Protein: DUF302 domain-containing protein
Organism: Glarea lozoyensis
Amino acid sequence: MSQNTEILKNVRREIVHSTQSYDSTIKKLYSSIGDMAHANWGSIAKEIKSYDKQAQEFFTSKIEESIGPHGFMIFQEFNHGAWLPLFVPNLKLKSTRIILGNPLIAITMLKHDTSAGLYVPVELLLEEKEDGGTDLIYITPSNLIANESIEGKPDELRKAAEVLDEKFRALVLWVAGQEN
């Protein structure tokens, strides 16, 4: 058995606070990425029958139809707020983890290092706060994908991950009502 361990350094966890209610915040996010009732990643992936140029063009067109105005689509969500009160009775605040991404952005990294697939699509946690606002919490993708402490990562991978950082942060700030 072989084992290799890499220790990541300087991973940034971002917390963006919004004064918007949780319900307004998640509704705004869904308006850009879609919601689970309209998630179609699974059906797009199932349509892959070959790996020729025509299949690639078909896949690309289906993804482009599915992504929202900020360039992302929903893949999955986990409503932690639905079950947490079973174990923490006084915790009545909403909390949802959402997996979102864009395969056309992901490929800009995966073509350099398939292990980047551990971190794309990206994750966003929305947490209702007692002040009536919402925290949007995420890990800066490039800190995981092209971490400086891992040797041998190509510059192209880092640059592509930084583009993802910018696009993801722009979406988060827009959802939080803090866009420039």
Observations:
- The beta strands are 13-18, 73-79, 95-101, 122-128, 134-139.
